[in-house]
């Protein structure tokens, strides 16, 4: 999603339709009485920290964008948004909230998919959008330090002028904050090449619930002095501290990028193509994505696009290479594609000849989410598992829904079960478009799917996190002893439980 | 260090020289009375877990190798070594030790440099050498799972037959265990290319002090379900749990490797060469190492090697590329070298034409440690800092020692101050060979050096960890709030403090 689509969604939310409150949609949540209700004294105190322009109070129109997520799936009831400008202000805010037991929701670009960044009840929203300065950049090592509220795409553009790039890329880059990326351990499209944030993030500055500023803003690639505490904050979804600054290792921007599309007959061949790409494309492979023909049909239904290939195939593979030498990369990619065709692994192959062709190929893969969003209803899952199991998951879900009477006949509620995702990461986006949001269908899907994923030792949330929509299912991905230890850490770091309550860890 | 040199060191320790006890060398440590002294009942209980062949008790000859480190710098007084064969045995051992308050030192290949893997007093050694089985390998994703006691080189050889490799490499590979690599967050030679273990390790199985088996043996590249607890164990030096199993992402083994050596006039030019290598060699760069001419002179003193270059230069740069296409890599490397010479950044350049020439070039870089070890005494430091400061550190230490009257005259105690290391990682190995171990010299070096590193926001231990030799200096690298939080985690995870006591965190 680009910035413009995000804005469209926002306008939609405020203009045309009232999003139901999360607590109405997910019944069973009760406001915890241990949290203080805001008083005018509290608001005055916060005003003394951030100033008149640093807060939004009881103005429903202005609060809307902070109370509602971009998909219009979640809506909270916060009366106060704070926009600190400095780490010290964040510290002062949290110290007071902790003393007064005021619940807080940290918020970055608010582009999450699991409701983690919006409140449920009257939690105070602490938005990082006022902290958006680049702090330093070392063009020898490629190490960037920046405020947590910097927008990912802005950082990437800024680095681009210096010949570097951010090591992560995702659809929401035009709106998401780097601090939010860290807090949710964002993966995205470049993970197969540049690895996860646990490897690329070198330092974090975070404010703990009691106001302690934890300065771990290392700009060192190697530092073996004590527990690597910053790692706990990566993927903690704002539950143990507010990330205010980041230090990250950025790679050189590649001078040559190539994109190709393969038509493939079976998922076994998709795997063979992936395996061989790691040998022949090796160091220049920067994306290996797949989508099935069912997903492509949904795309075609909502898009007027010319076909990229003459024929249709059960599976499509999108390959991207990024390297420092155009001729070398072209030679590697062409040899690889020839081998795939000769060996019968690919039935067809197309290499983009220019940027507009690259965009067309990427356009289908990236447009799947939007096309699926145009169906009357869609059940979306972001799961990971051993690569070999990806298509089994799609097939077994189809069987299961058919046996359950929800799929396969003209009057069935389910339209289709489609799969696409990041093959290299074992990450499947399983989507089930349906004629309407139907609790009976949901009961067929869950917990069947989570149990299936659990049996494969997969993850029920590969990239999207837990938030409010996955936290009760954590036991399908993590053992009892792991969850117990997580709860211990949460209570040690946030004894009053003021940070992002009701979410992340199971409450039941 | 290869396995054979390690054995030599071991023989030296047992045969010719009695290593002084650590507690004699580092006075001020006292055995903590809270730990129980072993009784025959305890030993019988342990025997019931691991069997007769799974323990060594009160046999000084057999205990020696577990009580002494390979450098003969540290010696403990343990009377009991346990060699469990299963994770359940490790759990049973720790549960009992925790209940009885028996102190434990986990031990892998015992190749550490800071005394972290040997006991101080009568702690029980739990050696992982009996747990050395590969558990699984997925040749599509490249994900390996294995017991913690597997030797790094054995894993790498095993993977080599399948076209894969371990993402880390270090001198001690012939002896060190993968579990110990994780426990010490080993960096090594390939970090510039494959990143740190925080990125490549996907899962850990660890036993907590109370015997809880923490099963986080994920084989997923993406999993955003809760705090990433495994990260805390990476670099924890055996203080919060014993790692018994690992899951790691392994890259394809490159089919082409090239090695080159540059002669360079200034450290500014070393940085320029590094910067340009990231542009031109980019995705194939797998090592960028430097050593200064002073280090090279020490090497020459102890080695009968033919010179690789005709002339000598103030600095030498070793570049290694690893890729999937020999011709492409050669072209990139040759173009880069020509540009370096044309631009006057390098004064001379040599590319190895075969494996024996590669070995000769690597031989100097890797032989520096051994050569320095042949000096009468040597003060060794492993520090990291912004790349631009690396040579300043060497120069300022020379000045400081000269002003302190310890260097620069024929009768000065210090022979030289030399630098070498991993430029790409900002990692300097600062070595100060001297005519004898002289407390006056040590007092000049420390804490001056740590203060200097601290001012550059560097790390006092880039790769080697803290153990017993660096833990009291932690505050030079980490803030008070960070150390406080580390101590909190330690006390939460190991409330009785049975794991690796007296080490890692400051005791004073």
Question: Helices, strands, pairings?
Answer:
2 copies of one chain form a homodimer.
Chain A: H1 3-15, H2 22-25, H3 40-50, E1 55-57, H4 60-67, E2 80-82, H5 87-100, E3 104-107, E4 124-127, E5 134-138, E6 143-147, H6 152-160, H7 178-183, H8 191-194, H9 197-200, E7 201-207, E8 213-216, H10 230-233, E9 242-249, E10 256-264, H11 267-280, E11 285-292, H12 293-302, E12 315-323, H13 326-342, E13 348-351, H14 355-373, E14 377-384, H15 390-403, E15 418-422, E16 427-434, H16 439-445, H17 448-455, H18 480-493
Parallel strand pairs in A: 2-4, 3-4
Antiparallel strand pairs in A: 1-2, 5-6, 6-9, 7-8, 7-9, 10-12, 10-13, 11-12, 11-15, 14-16, 15-16
Helix pairs in contact in A: 11-13, 12-14
Write a compact overview of the structure shown.
Chains A, B: Belongs to the FAD-binding oxidoreductase/transferase type 4 family. The structure is a homodimer of 508-residue chains. Helix content of chain A is 35%, strand content 19%.
Keywords summarizing the entry:
homodimer; 508 residues; alpha+beta; Uridine Diphospho-n-acetylenolpyruvylglucosamine Reductase, domain 2; Uridine Diphospho-n-acetylenolpyruvylglucosamine Reductase, domain 3; Alpha-Beta Plaits; 4 domains; seven-stranded antiparallel beta sheet; five-stranded antiparallel beta sheet; 18 helices; 16 strands; 19% strand; globular; disordered N terminus
């Amino acid at each position: 999603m680009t910035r413009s689509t995000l804005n469209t969604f926002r306008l939609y939310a405020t203009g045309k339709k009232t999003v139901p409150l999360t607590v109405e949609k997910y019944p069973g949540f009760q406001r915890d009485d241990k949290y203080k209700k805001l008083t005018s004294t509290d608001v005055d105190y916060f005003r003394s920290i951030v100033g008149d322009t640093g807060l939004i109070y009881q103005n429903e129109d202005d609060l809307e964008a902070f109370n509602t997520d971009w998909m219009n799936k979640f809506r909270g009831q916060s009366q106060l948004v704070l926009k600190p400008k400095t780490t010290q202000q964040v510290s002062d805010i949290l110290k007071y909230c902790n003393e007064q037991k005021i619940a807080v929701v940290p918020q970055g670009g608010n582009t999450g998919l699991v409701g983690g960044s919006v409140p449920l009840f009257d939690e105070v929203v602490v938005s990082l959008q006022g902290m958006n300065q680049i702090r330093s950049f070392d063009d020898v090592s490629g190490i960037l330090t920046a405020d947590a509220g910097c927008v990912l795409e802005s950082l990437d553009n800024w680095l681009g002028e210096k010949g570097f790039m951010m090591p992560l890329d995702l659809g929401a880059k035009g709106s998401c904050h780097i601090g939010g990326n860290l807090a949710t351990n964002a993966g995205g499209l470049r993970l197969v090449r540049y690895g996860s944030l646990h490897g690329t993030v070198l330092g974090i500055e975070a404010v703990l619930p009691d106001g302690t500023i934890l300065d771990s803003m290392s700009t060192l690639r190697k530092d073996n002095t004590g527990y690597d505490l910053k790692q706990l904050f990566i993927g903690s979804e704002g539950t143990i501290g507010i990330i205010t600054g980041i230090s990250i290792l950025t790679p050189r921007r590649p001078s040559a990028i190539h994109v190709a599309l393969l038509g493939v007959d079976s998922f076994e061949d998709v795997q063979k193509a992936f395996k061989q790409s790691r040998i022949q494309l090796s160091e220049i492979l920067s994306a290996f994505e797949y989508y099935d023909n069912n997903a492509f049909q949904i795309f075609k239904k909502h898009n007027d696009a010319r076909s990229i290939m003459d024929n249709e195939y059960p599976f499509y593979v999108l390959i991207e290479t990024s390297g420092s030498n155009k001729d070398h990369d072209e030679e590697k990619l062409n040899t690889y594609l020839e081998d795939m065709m000769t060996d019968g692994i690919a039935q067809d192959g197309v290499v983009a000849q220019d940027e507009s062709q690259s965009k067309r190929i990427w356009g289908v893969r990236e447009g799947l989410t939007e096309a699926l969003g145009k169906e009357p209803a869609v059940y979306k899952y972001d799961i990971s598992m051993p690569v070999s199991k990806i298509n089994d998951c799609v097939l077994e879900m189809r069987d299961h829904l058919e046996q359950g009477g929800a799929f396969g006949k003209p009057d069935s509620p389910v339209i289709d079960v489609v799969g696409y995702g990041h093959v290299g990461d074992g990450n499947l986006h399983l989507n089930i478009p349906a004629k309407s949001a139907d609790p009976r269908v949901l009961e067929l899907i869950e917990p069947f799917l989570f149990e299936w994923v659990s049996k494969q030792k997969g993850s029920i949330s590969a990239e999207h996190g837990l938030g409010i929509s996955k936290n009760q299912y954590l036991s399908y991905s993590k053992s009892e002893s792991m969850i117990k230890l997580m709860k211990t850490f949460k209570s040690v770091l946030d004894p009053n439980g003021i940070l992002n309550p009701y979410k992340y860890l199971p409450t039941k």
